[in-house]
Amino acid sequence: MKNLIRTVAAAIGLIAAMTLTSFAQTNMEAEALAKVNEIRLANGLSEVKYSASLENTSVIRVNEITEKFAHERPDGSEFYTVDSSIMYGENLAKGYNSADEVVDAWMASPSHRENILRSEYGTCAISTTTKDGKTYWAQEFGV
User: Fold this and answer.
1) Does pTM top 0.85 for this prediction?
2) Residue 69: Cβ within 10 Å count
3) pLDDT tens digits for 82-100?
4) Tens digit of pLDDT for each residue in 101-137?
5) E strands, 1-143, where?
6) Interatomic CA distance for residues 95 and 113, integer angstroms
7) Mean pLDDT of 54-64
8) Between 1 and 71, whose confidence is greater?
């Protein structure tokens, strides 16, 4: 019974996120992806391509991190369980108000930098939301 309730709650949350959030990248998100690709090219790597499927997962994750800021989902499962068939890496941030600020912060963090410069990653999507005056960022990577 608990599993059924969790499944129904997750489905309702997904529908709510899809209803309340546009799946089109904002300028800020597109700028962040462009900056990530500039960094990748400067480091001899190929660009990561925008992925609409990953954007669906990044929208879910950005909404989840307003409740629980962690690579663990509010229900205790790992971030990639949003869609384990396409999610391989994740960078999160909160409190940065521009693409430059957030990408600079990710590059200053060894684990976030590693994700941005991982050659195996070929796709990416970045979503943002604002809650209580803070901007939250979810960057999801795929192969």
Assistant:
1) no
2) 13
3) 999 999 999 999 999 999 9
4) 999 999 999 999 999 999 999 999 999 999 999 999 9
5) 49-50, 89-94, 123-131, 134-142
6) 18
7) 98
8) 71
Looking only at the bridges linking them, the beta strands covering 134-142 and 89-94 are antiparallel
- Provide the b/e sequence for 124-139 (b: ≥16 CB within 10 Å): bbbbbbeeeeebbbbb
Match 């307003």 to its residue by tokens: 66
What integer best gives the mean pLDDT of the chain? 88
What is d(CA 73, CA 53) in angstroms, rounded to the nearest whole number?
19
Q: Which residue has the tokens 């500039």?
A: 38
Q: How confident is the model at residue 26 (pLDDT cuts 50, 70, 90)?
A: confident
Amino acid at 11: A
What is the SS3 assignment for 16?
Answer: helix
What residue type is 52 in one-letter code?
A
Contact 128, 29 (CB under 8 A): yes
Calpha distance 19→43 (Å, rounded): 38
H/E segment holding residue 112 = helix 110-116
Q: Which residues contact 95 (CB under 8 A, 6 or more apart)?
A: 134, 135
